[in-house]
Amino acid sequence: MPNSRELTAVVGFRSKNAASHLVTQLLDQGWLEQDAAGTLLPGPRFHTVPVLGTVTAGFPSPAEEELADTMSLDDFLITNREATYILKVNGESMIGAGILPGDLLLVERGAEPHDGDIVIAQVDREWTIKFLRKRGRRVFLEAANQDFKPIYPTEELQIAAVVRAVIRKYT
Amino acid sequence: MEPLTRDSFPRAIVHIDGDAFFASCEQSRRPKLQGRPVVTGKERGIAASMSYEAKARGVTRGMRIADIRKVCPEAVILPSDYETYSLLSKRFFAIVRRYTPDVEEYSIDECFADLTGLRRPLKMNYFEIAARIKKELDAELGFTFSVGLAPNKVVAKIASKWQKPSGLTAIPGRELHRFLAKLPVEKVWGIGPNTTAFLAKHDIRTALEFARSEEPWVKKHLSKPFYQIWQELNGQYVFELVTGEHETYYTIQKVKTFTPASSDRAFVFAQLAKNIENACIKIRKHKLAAQRVVIFLRTQQFRDFGLEIELSGPTQFPNDILHAVAQAFEELFEPTAAYRATGVILSKLTEAYYGQLDLFGEAIRMQRLSNLYESVDTLREKYGKHTVFLGASFLAHQSAQHDGERGHVPERRQQLLPGETARKRLGIPMFMGEVT
Predict the structure, then answer these.
(1) What residue numbers bound the domain in which A85 lies?
(2) pLDDT at B365
(3) Does A101 share its domain with A161?
(4) With contacts defined as CB-CB under 8 Å, which chain B residues touch A110?
(5) Cβ distance of A110 and B140 shorter than 8 Å
(6) Among B335, B331, B253, residue whose Cα is nearest residue B299
(7) pTM for the whole structure
(8) Right CATH number for B252-397 from 2.40.10.10, 3.30.1490.100, 3.30.70.270, 1.20.1250.20?
(9) How high is the ipTM of this complex?
């Protein structure tokens, strides 16, 4: 921070006295502080503090500042917006994984499928939802329902999308 | 052979074209349709888009559905789902914008993008960047795109068409002459039949012959746009990209069913006229003008007959459109048939603008119509729709309509999710079919 003489020059006062008067005021109001040697330092009010509205008593309400960092349900559920599609479950093969007929899925196209992901694969010209399992070089699809046998693809397995979220809306 | 220019990419422009866009949108969300001939446009009675499988069997754009059933009986014919096509189109442009903000949304299924200067930040050459964009588009939208990379728009268009579907073609300035040598001049973007005929008189048949014409000759015999095309064929960058995201209606359509079915020519025409009036209200609301009109009539047997009419200039007034479609209507209308619905689709939409003056008083006529419809729209806002209407649609205002029917409504609109309504649906495209 400038000392009183430098401040005189900066502000354009003629006398150093006027500058010290200004410094005293700034000190009083907390804009500046003075250490033991008399050097001026930035005070507590020097750094801008956002005004968050009036608070009746106690601590300031953190609510409004926090709101600036919230996300919409869309942002929460969707990572890659351009690649995300919706589809409706029809079968019962994933009941064990908590995916029921009528549920809506948010699926991501073009994503790299990993072992254990729930995926949408294309089998016999139909979409099918299953766990993707990779055992060494072998890749197969596994249902979460004992009534369904695992699917071992004879040709290249076509994974259309990876399931990112399940939505069940009770009207 | 001497190259046209030694500079390979003074600018790097890509043109990206969705392969059979509408049909591909349908195939990508219905595995049942993959590898099969698919045609969209059922609701208008003519093909709006067809998959490569359908093209291979001779189906062409604008072909009547009845004819398609003859040449390709196995074709799957679907009603257009413009809502989904538009959602996917927006995604297409958004993916390209991951790489550059300079994107020109040329139409629902094509765009230009400027990649100039991106090599260093992306640590890739232009071809690799184009390949990466294509890879993301193909993977995330679930169907293929054709990409052309060149020093300018005209050549980028040639490049994207060079190999289709799913092509990726780069034409650096240095190689330009090799590509143009094999290309008939009429295949160049912007060169129409008249110019082709004129050039043929001077023994110019390939794009290369045109590009090698002497500059003073080109300037003397051809108008400015063709001189600019000549410049671009020589590797220069002339046509700027028109960038910026524009909220565009790609088509505006109005369809209305009426019961009982009618064989009364005047009544059916009045129904069509009313649809045209309604479509024009919407087009004016969005300050757009249309240059292409499709009209169609649906018979009691649910067979659709449509015709496409190209207008001489863009318009937003029903008077112009009615005048243009009257003859097409006569061609479509069969006195022995009973009709249950008429429809109109306005497309090739541009921002309404009548600034251009001309010899035949067209601008003055347009100004008059514009004044007239400003009053019509004011009356409508104040007293409701159809406070004043054209005499041509009088008969259609005499009786109540009946609305709604399936089969011509896209599947997405019939499968509403809980909370969705006929007017409002989730803005996320849906995979269709059984998911077991």
Answers:
(1) 75-167
(2) 81
(3) yes
(4) 136, 139-140, 142
(5) yes
(6) B335
(7) 0.73
(8) 3.30.1490.100
(9) 0.73
